[in-house]
Design goal:
single chain; 327 residues; alpha/beta; serine acetyltransferase, domain 1; UDP N-Acetylglucosamine Acyltransferase, domain 1; 2 domains; 5-stranded parallel β-sheet; globular
Length: 327
């Protein structure tokens, strides 16, 4: 008689349980020692409300002053963020022998230090919104940017995660930026350093590595990679500069790859689409792919396709002031 479905399921469970006992790293079992991703995602939303209170305030609060809903939200953030930071403190060497009370006290101190940074974060976000509006003629107003633009959402989440990263918080900043990555297609490591007036247009496929340094008034289009030249050294490269420096007023068009810790893109440079750069670029330079050609086959009515290729040679950037296009 064929084995019953219940017996088959029991066998599957027994086999899986046996595999759990083989001592793999991924077999670690803990109920309370890992951060709660859902709580962290809710914290992102709460922090977004604190930064952009006028846009994302909770309409259910029927109060006469702004202070009351902000107080409620702030207390909720303090409680949940402190708890999550306390959980990830185990990744810091100085928490190894600390008592639970000491860990919670340290976590609360970090939370309060982080929240003290919110006015500064708001200043940066204000400049980012301005850069988006000035840089994109498709934006009808700044409200559209705040509510709709994925680049704005990715940058806001990065700004929050970066300050936690600077305070030595492990794991939580990465969960935050990877959540933004999953929602927007924009991958910004919380360790990157990004100045004011940062503009991401479209954004899908952008990668900004951990040790990247970006100045002010920088524009980046979709598909750009600011990455490491090589990661073959693995963990031996930890803490070393692996990603490029992008100075003020640089524009990087779609599909460009700029790689390496020794690569510096000088002030005011313009990097054309689909370029591959592994060395320094002087200030004010315009970089493009040379001798690019397009071939177009023309069709002629009832006679069908005709083999009449028409070639368009790419203009040198220095000869074409209109090259500063908007996609």
């Amino acid at each position: 008689m064929a084995e019953s479905l219940e017996q088959q399921i029991g066998g599957l469970i027994d086999g899986l349980l046996k595999s759990y006992e083989e001592g793999k790293y991924i077999d670690k079992v803990s109920t309370f020692e890992y951060p709660d991703e859902e709580v962290i995602i809710r914290l992102i939303d709460s922090l977004k409300r604190l930064v952009l209170q006028g846009f994302f305030n909770n309409k259910s609060y029927k109060v006469l002053t702004m202070k009351s809903p902000i107080s409620i939200l702030m207390e909720d953030v303090i409680y949940n963020l402190t708890k999550q930071i306390g959980i990830v403190c185990k990744y810091n060497a100085d928490c190894g022998c600390a008592s639970e009370n000491e860990i919670q006290e340290k976590a609360l101190g970090i939370t309060l230090q982080f929240l003290e940074k919110l006015p500064m974060i708001r200043e940066y976000v204000e400049t980012d919104v301005e850069a988006f509006y000035e840089g994109d003629p498709a934006a009808y107003n700044k409200d559209e940017i705040i509510y709709c633009y994925p680049g704005m959402q990715a940058i806001l989440t990065y700004r929050l995660a970066h300050e936690l990263h600077l305070l030595g918080v492990r794991l939580i900043p990465r969960i935050m930026t990877e959540y933004a990555h999953s929602k927007t297609g924009i991958d910004i490591h919380p360790g990157a350093t990004i100045g004011k007036y940062f503009f991401i247009d479209h954004g899908t496929g952008i990668v900004v590595g951990e040790t990247t340094v970006i100045g002010e008034h920088v524009k980046v289009y979709q598909g750009v990679t600011l990455g490491a030249l090589s990661t073959r050294g693995g963990q031996s490269l930890k803490g070393k500069r692996r990603h490029p420096t992008i100075e003020d007023n640089v524009t990087i068009y779609s599909g460009a790859s700029i790689l390496g810790g020794d690569t510096v893109i000088g002030k005011g440079a313009v990097i054309g689409g689909n370029t591959f750069i592994t060395g320094p670029i002087p200030a004010g330079a315009k970089v493009s792919v040379k001798n690019q050609e397009l071939a177009v086959n023309l069709t002629s009515g009832a006679d069908g396709p005709r083999d009449l290729p028409v070639k368009f040679e790419a203009r040198e950037l220095e000869e074409d002031d209109n090259w500063f296009y908007i996609i």
